[in-house]
Amino acid sequence: MAKRIHPLAANCIGLPKMQQTDVIKLRFSVHNPVFQLMKTRYKIYSLLIVGIPLLGVWLVWDYLPGRFPIYLNDNDKPDHFVSRQEWLRMLLSVLFILGLIRSVVLALLSKRINEQDVRFTRIYLLSAAFISSILGLFTMKTVYHSSDFLPVLLVLFGAAGVYLTVATNRPSDDQTVNSSLVRQRNESLSQMHTLSRLALIRVNLLAALVMLFARSEDRWTIGITANLLALAALSVMEVIRRPSG
Q1: Which end of the chain has the smaller Cβ count within 10 Å, N or C?
Q2: Hey, which residues does 80 pair with through a beta bridge?
Q3: Is 99 in contact with 131 (CB distance < 8 Å)?
Q4: Which run of H or of E encompasses 68?
Q5: DSSP H or E segment with residue 187
Q6: In terms of domain of life, where is this protein from (predicted)?
Q7: Buried b vs exposed e over 111-138: b needs ≥16 C-beta within 10 Å?
C-alpha cells in the first residue's frame, strides 16, 4: 500500500496530490499536524487572554489599598473589608470556578461539535474572553467601586456568541425532496432561522447600549425584558409564517 503524504508535502517534493477522500480523512483526523498546531495556538491565545487581568493586578499591586470592601450595607456603605491577600485569593477562586465550568462545557460541546470546526475555536476563545472580562469587572468593582456592568457583559457576549457560532443560513434537511409542502416548510424554517439569529444579535446589542446609560439596578431588568420581548415576537412570527397543512 502506498504511503499517504500530506498535500503540502506532496506539493513541496513534486509528488501527486492525494485523492479527495484521503484529504477529507486527514483533515478530520486528530493526527492532522495542521490541526494540532492550530489547537496549540488557540490554547496559548486563550491563556494569554485570561491572564490579562491578572497581569494588570500584578502591575498595580504595590499601588492597591491595604484592604478592600466586599459587602455594602443598605446605604451603599462598605461594612466588611478583606486584606489584599484575601482579595487576591478570592479573585483566583473566581478564576478557578469559571475555568472549571468552562472546561466542563467545552468537553460536553466537543461531543456535539468537531474540535476542528471553526465554531468550536470561536467558542473556545470567546469563553476565555468572557472569563477575562469577569475577572476585570470583579477587579474594577472591588478596587475602584465601579458600577455593576455584569448584565451588559452578558448581553454583549450573548450577541457575540450567536453571531460567531450560529450559521447565517439553516442547512436544508433534504435537497432531493420533491414535495412542494416539504420544500415550503424548509424554506420557512430557513427564513425563521436567519431572522431569529439577526433579531437576537441586534436586540442584545441595542439592550447593551441602553444598559450602559441606565441605572445599575435597572440593567438586569432591561436585558431580560429585551430578550423576552424578542423571543415572544419571534414565536408569534413563527406561528404566522408556519405553512398550513
Answers
A1: N
A2: 71
A3: yes
A4: strand 67-72
A5: helix 180-213
A6: Bacteria
A7: eeeeebeeebbbbbbbbbbbbbbbbbbb
Q: Rounded to an integer, what distance in angstroms lies between the CA atom of residue 163 and that of residue 125?
A: 14
For 177, residues 6+ apart whose C-beta sits below 8 A from its C-beta are 183, 186
Query: What's at 145, amino acid-wise?
Result: H
Q: How far is CA 93 from CA 61, 86, 97, 153, in A?
A: 18, 10, 6, 20
Q: For residue 82, what are the β-bridge partners?
A: 68
Instruction: Please give the Cα distance from 210 to 212 (Å, whole number).
Output: 5
Map grid coordinates 482579595 to a residue. Answer: 87
Helix 150-165 with 180-213: angle, nearest 10 deg: 150
Q: What is the DSSP letter of 29?
A: S
Per-residue pLDDT of 110-140, as tens digits, reads: 888 877 788 888 889 999 999 999 999 888 8
CA-to-CA distance for 26 and 77, rounded, in angstroms? Answer: 61
Half-sphere exposure at residue 37, Cβ-oriented, CA atoms within 13 angstroms: 4
Neighbours of 11 (CB within 10 A): 11
Instruction: Dump pLDDT digits (tens) for 30-74.
Output: 556 666 777 788 889 999 999 999 999 899 888 888 887 766 666
Nearest C-alpha neighbor of 66 from the set 45, 81, 47: 81
